[in-house]
């Protein structure tokens, strides 16, 4: 699985470098029954601002259910939470990426639906 973080800088999306989920099969941290927690390390320039969205690509042959993602201790923001509650199918099944937004970004898109269409129809 690869994940890209997106931020808005001067009205344009800025995409960071991908982070890859390593040791997916061998080192999950169990939480509730049937759930696992994994850690990722992102490289991110603070000058880009806080991420408002993530692009998730599943390179595994099987689908996965992504409940949520959390970035802890982001400078000047603290905790950034992405509620996903969605299946992410392998990249071979679709020609588009899965994008998940923080709750901080969603009200912006509801106010400006034309931005939403422009952003995803490039």
- What integer is the average pLDDT? 74
The named CATH superfamily: PLAT/LH2 domain
State the end-to-end CA separation.
Answer: 23 Å
Order of helices and strands: EEEEEEEEEHH
Q: Into which percent range does the helicity of residues fall? A: 10-25%
CATH architecture: Sandwich
Strand content: 35-45%
Which value, in Å, is the CA radius of gyration?
15 Å
Low-confidence segments, ≥5 residues, pLDDT <50? 107-122
Largest sheet, in brief, is: 5 strands, antiparallel
CATH class: Mainly Beta
Q: Which outline best applies?
A: globular
Number of strands: 9
Task: Give the SSE layout.
Layout: E1 2-9, E2 12-15, E3 19-20, E4 29-30, E5 36-37, E6 53-57, E7 64-74, E8 78-88, E9 98-101, H1 106-111, H2 113-120
Antiparallel strand pairs: 1-2, 1-3, 1-6, 4-5, 6-9, 7-8
Can you walk me through this structure?
With 122 residues, the chain is mainly β. The protein has a single domain, classed as PLAT/LH2 domain (Lipoxygenase-1, Sandwich). The chain is built from 2 helices and 9 strands; from the N terminus they run βββββββββαα. It has helices spanning 106-111, 113-120, and strands at residues 2-9, 12-15, 19-20, 29-30, 36-37, 53-57, 64-74, 78-88, 98-101. Strands 1, 2, 3, 6 and 9 form a 5-stranded antiparallel β-sheet that branches. It is globular, with a radius of gyration of 15 Å. It starts with a strand and ends with a helix.
Descriptive key words:
single chain, 122 residues, mainly beta, Lipoxygenase-1, five-stranded antiparallel β-sheet, two-stranded antiparallel sheet, disordered C terminus, Linoleate 9S-lipoxygenase 5, LipOase, PLAT/LH2_dom_sf, oxidoreductase activity, acting on single donors with incorporation of molecular oxygen, incorporation of two atoms of oxygen
